[in-house]
């Protein structure tokens, strides 16, 4: 399994809130995005159709130490 950072914007973006950034373990980026989106939808009680992935803040690895945003670590979660 590899570590991926996935940033998901939900309906909170319409209120001016920042997107959520999730760190997950997955075999590939597509699986990582699916895991992060599914978790976000459940945790924030949002429909999958309302969610968007930010491709500029979705990548393999952890966010840099000076990324300037908070991220949520889901690596230990059984998704």
Q: Write down the overall mean pLDDT.
A: 92
In helices, the fraction of residues equals 10-25%
- Rough outline: globular
* Low confidence ranges: none
SSE pattern? EEHEEE
* Structural domain tally: 1
Q: Beta fraction of the residues?
A: 25-35%
Q: In whole angstroms, how far apart are the ends?
A: 14 Å
Structural class: alpha+beta
Q: Can you count the beta strands?
A: 5
Number of helices: 1
Main sheet overview? 5 strands, mixed
Radius of gyration: 12 Å
Account of the 3D structure:
It is globular and about 35 Å long. It has one domain. By secondary structure, the chain is α+β, with helices and mostly antiparallel strands. The protein is built from one helix and five strands, in the order ββαβββ. 20% of the residues lie in helices and 27% in strands. Strands 1, 2, 3, 4 and 5 form a five-stranded mixed beta sheet that branches.
Q: What is the topology?
A:
Layout: E1 2-9, E2 20-26, H1 29-44, E3 52-53, E4 59-60, E5 72-73
Parallel strand pairs: 2-5
Antiparallel strand pairs: 1-2, 1-3, 1-4
Compact summary:
The protein has 79 residues and is an alpha+beta fold.
Kindly list the characteristics that best describe this protein.
single chain; 79 residues; alpha+beta; five-stranded mixed β-sheet
């Amino acid at each position: 399994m590899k570590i991926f950072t996935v940033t998901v914007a939900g309906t909170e973006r319409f209120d001016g809130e920042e997107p959520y950034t999730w760190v997950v373990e997955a075999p590939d980026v597509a699986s990582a995005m699916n895991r992060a989106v599914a978790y976000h939808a459940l945790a924030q009680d949002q429909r999958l159709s309302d969610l968007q992935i930010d491709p500029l803040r979705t990548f393999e690895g952890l966010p840099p130490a000076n990324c300037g945003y908070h991220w949520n670590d889901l690596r230990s979660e059984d998704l």
